[in-house]
Amino acid sequence: MARLSRDQIAERLAKDIPEGAYVNLGIGLPTKVSNYLPKDKDIFLQSENGILAMGPLAAEGEEDWDLVNAGKQAVTLLKGGSYFHHADSFAMMRGGHLDYCVLGAFQVSRDGDLANWSTGESGAIPAVGGAMDLAAGARATYIMMELLTKDGQSKLVEKCTYPLTGVRCVKRVYTDYAVFQIEPEGVVRVIDDCAGVGQDELRRLTGLDLVF
């Protein structure tokens, strides 16, 4: 079986969001999740720039550029949705009112540490931003990323080498190869071998003693 595309990763993650959940989708890849949430379930998307009950990304030609998410993408608003001050949005994020946040990552450690804002390269963004508040405030942090870097190194690691966004905050990692559950005592459990590569290959790719 082939590795999942980015849209397929988003679709796989969307299946695990329960009805009634309040969810923040981070900038970049996680915004794709909004296009795959089931329309027969009430799931409330929040954007850190001040939107609640955000819908899918706007179709080409139907954009309202006064209605954008935190990544400046044109979005839609579901019936009953609202938009409000940035400070109120961060109070929601920091106050434990979000069930899930979905973020991208440069690295996730086996203990659930998250590094997603800087690789230390020249010209990198200068601050951690709202991801820090989300990782600390949401009840569960889910990561959506490709498992390997362009040079074939695993982003799921023993210990993060990049500056941290949050400590022991990640609960689950969705990748193009598999879905990984981060459990206590540094246990990383494979809960879905999406690409069907098998236990030995996943252990080789990650360099971790994975549990199945």
What does the model show?
The chain is of the alpha/beta class. It has one domain (6-206): Glutaconate Coenzyme A-transferase (3-Layer(aba) Sandwich). It is built from 4 helices and 12 strands, in the order αββββαβββαβββββα. The strands form 2 sheets. A 9-stranded mixed beta sheet has the order 4-3-2-1-5-8-10-11-12. The longest helix is centred in the N-terminal third of the chain and has 9 residues, at 6-14. The protein starts with 5 loop residues before the first helix and ends in a 6-residue tail after the last helix. The model has no long low-confidence stretch (mean pLDDT 94).
Quaternary structure: single chain
The SSE order reads HEEEEHEEEHEEEEEH
The rounded distance between the terminal residues' Cα atoms is 19 Å
Number of strands: 12
Query: Architecture, according to CATH?
Result: 3-Layer(aba) Sandwich
What is the CATH homologous superfamily assignment? Glutaconate Coenzyme A-transferase
- The strand line-up of the biggest sheet is 4-3-2-1-5-8-10-11-12
Structural class: alpha/beta
- Continuous helix count: 4
CATH-defined fold name: Glutaconate Coenzyme A-transferase
Beta percentage is 25-35%
How would you characterize the largest beta sheet? 9 strands, mixed
The helix content, as a percent range, equals 10-25%
GO molecular function, one term: CoA-transferase activity
Keywords: Transferase
InterPro entries: 3-oxoacid_CoA-transf_B (IPR012791), CoA_trans_fam_I (IPR004165), CoA_transf_AS (IPR004164), NagB/RpiA_transferase-like (IPR037171)
Family: Belongs to the 3-oxoacid CoA-transferase subunit B family.
